[in-house]
Design brief:
globular; Rossmann fold; six-stranded parallel sheet; alpha/beta; 14 helices; 12 strands
């Protein structure tokens, strides 16, 4: 099959960009003709896109906003077999903040897309509410296992490697950016992790915390958190790393923390399970077998769960979750094949 993948490309190396990178590699390894195109909204890009994607059997988009929705819907109307993966809560917020008229238009174009993949059930409800046929929607997680070169220790930045080597155990967390949800809290639970670090530092003097941020941050909020860490005397215990690779860090970590207040399908959680790294995460969304859950936003419960994992660490490390980590890829490939067969008139 000839497949075009359209979506965010590095930099930064965020979750969707990583998904596209891994999907391209696996499809190419299986003998498919794959090309990746970065996002853009310029008229020149759109005109070039219309001329370019007729050559492909499938144009698979991995990002959605108002403009992209219209563009992908137009492809469907004109006969280009377009697919879309909605990776997070962007659709939910757009629907909630749009007028009824705009949502009707939104629904009209989304209905023209041949198939839509969603990373969680709540997105399906939003799509159906604006008129998309449930038969054209699948719930499919966004996880694809990392390639071997992604987890090589040589990809860890020298400063982060040095910091991790200073500690006998490292707890890691990642975020695309600092996104405040109140005066004291942020979407990814970074403030919670700082307070957790303070509470654990006396009991576990060799413990280190690494927080990897994908993109440049909200400077005022970032400085507030940095000051908080300094005032607590934890500058050598808790450290931010901006724009650095996270997967090789995760592979060398002792525990992944995912204290989010909202979440889609958290790829980092699946990566940790694949790599055999214990995970403590908020119960905001289902996390799957093997993840130790705490009550979202509850620091006492979070502390208790992390202490429990650290005290029973060897037992957690020995657990190996038996699951098919390629189920997402297999689901995508099945829909690709079905769409190509329909296009060729082989099935209804």
């Amino acid at each position: 099959m000839k497949i075009a993948l359209i979506g965010p490309t590095p930099p930064p190396q965020g979750g969707i960009a990583t998904h596209i990178y891994r999907l391209e590699r696996r499809l190419a390894a299986d003998g498919h003709n794959v090309a990746v195109y970065g996002n853009c909204s310029s008229l020149k890009w759109i005109l070039a896109a219309f001329g370019r994607w007729w050559r492909f059997d499938i144009a698979h988009f991995h990002d959605i906003d108002w403009g992209k929705c219209v563009l992908v819907g137009l492809f469907g109307i004109l006969g280009i077999p377009a697919m879309l993966t909605i990776h997070g809560d962007s659709l939910t917020s757009q629907v909630a903040n749009s007028s009824k008229v705009k949502n009707r238009i939104y629904g009209f174009f989304l209905k023209k897309i041949r198939h839509i993949f969603c990373v969680k059930e709540a997105i399906v409800k939003d799509l159906v509410a604006i008129g998309v046929n449930p038969a054209h929607i699948s719930v499919l997680n966004a996880f694809l296992p990392p390639a071997s070169e992604e987890i090589e220790t040589t990809r860890i930045s020298p400063e982060q490697r040095q910091f991790m080597e200073m500690h006998n155990k490292n707890i890691v967390l990642n975020a695309s950016r600092i996104m405040p949800v109140s005066e004291t809290e942020d979407l990814y639970g970074i403030s919670l992790s700082i307070e957790l670090c303070r509470r654990l530092s006396e009991s576990y003097p060799g413990l280190g915390f690494c927080c990897n941020l994908a993109v440049p941050v909200d400077e005022s909020r970032f400085e507030f958190l940095q000051t908080q860490i300094r005032d607590m005397g934890m500058s050598e215990v808790y450290r931010f790393f901006v724009g650095k690779p996270f997967v090789p860090v995760l592979a060398q970590a002792d525990l992944l923390l995912r204290p989010t207040y909202e979440d889609g399908y958290a790829v980092s959680v699946a990566e940790a399970m694949f790599l055999g790294i214990p995970v403590v995460a908020s119960d905001m969304v289902p996390r799957g077998e093997g993840v130790e859950l705490f009550r979202t936003g509850n620091i006492e419960n979070l502390e208790a769960k992390v202490r429990f994992v650290l005290e029973h660490y060897e037992e957690y490390k020995e657990r190996r979750i038996r699951r098919n980590f390629w189920e997402s890829y297999e689901g995508l490939l099945a829909e690709y094949s079905l769409l190509v067969a329909r296009k060729a008139g082989k099935t209804s």
